[in-house]
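Sequence in, structure out. First:
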Amino acid sequence: MTTLEVIALIVSGVFVGFINTLAGGGTIISLSLFMFMGLPADVANGTNRIAVILQNLTSTASFKNQKLLDSRKAIVLAIPAVIGSIIGAQLSVSIDEATFEKAIGLVMLMMIYFMMVKPDKWIKGQLSLQEKKVSWQQLVIFFFIGIYGGFVQVGVGYFLLAGIVLGAGYDLVRANAIKGFIVLFYTIFALIVFILNDKVNWQFGLIHSIGNVTGAFIASRYALTWGAGFIRWFIIVIILITSADLFGVIDIRSMF
């Protein structure tokens, strides 16, 4: 591996860690760079999970230190996501990913509508929902989100935020804390599946993680300072960019 490749992995990792911590969709940069550097798509998909685990370990610890993480609710929601992620990781080698990604892009665009029409639900949170116990419907939703996350990871943060904000009533800052916790735990199990199937390049993954951890720390450290309003607009912009890539309007991969 050349010095330039090491620099590219680290620098891109900073952006990916930052984007994934505040919103989601940064994984598309990781996958694009890995494949540009010669990894097969399935190996790139597995390799990416190393950085995902380390960046979310960093952000979760930071959010917890700032007392922004509701650990009890996070654990309950993480359990169905973990089960789903194992199934999703197993499915990742056999499903037509291109068709699946376009469907996800459409759902992402629909999320912008809800964020624009009812912004208060995303910014202020709803205490009445936070105090409620997790329903079986929420468990089912997070199970299917886990399947998607185990399958490809790209954009899973959007769906987790929607479930946590609209379903559990948290504002975007605290929802991001719970999101990171859930992604951390289900990705551990998904990574095991990829390791068992020999779909992980440890050199690429660990070097890329250096940047991911840095970006995750910066984003989680200043999330409360920036506030839910800033994060809402940041997510809207990232959703538009990610959706444009999924629909073929732009090609992020060609930039790396």
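Second:
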Amino acid sequence: MAAPEPDAYCLRVSLLAVEPEIWRRMLVPGAMTLGQLHRTIQVAMGWGNQHLYEFEIGGACYGPMDEDADDDLIDDATVTLAEVVSAGDRFEYQYDFGDAWVHQVTVESTTSSIPALKLAVCVAGERAGSPEDCGGSGGYGELLEVLADPAHPEYVEACEWAPASILACSPW
């Protein structure tokens, strides 16, 4: 008898090129589409789904379909996680091609012992997600340097612009 199809996947999502690391561990249904996984990562990282994105899994690219989509792009709304990955697999998720936020997603484990899992659950993580449109990992690093130095000439402006989740400052 064949092993049952996994119902739940434990994923570790790590934002690359940022130190110290920003990461999340999520338990997600195996029946979740890659489009739904994109929205789940958006929520977990604190982003607003304002930019294009793409998954690269096993040499294939998955993303949202529109008139500008590449011919070889596979519609992420039609493919489930269970169809394309297994325990131990790693793949990339890129969000905002301008800022180039690249994430490594690792399938830490799968299980078929959670039959009622319908929604994703973020079970662990470290550090607040970077703000949207800050210039990628380089711009984010510069923003953190400014926020760490109250004497910096851009400190007050950075405190006013940055989301509360990353603020270690108060301009007042």
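Remark: The chain has two domains: 8-126, 136-166.
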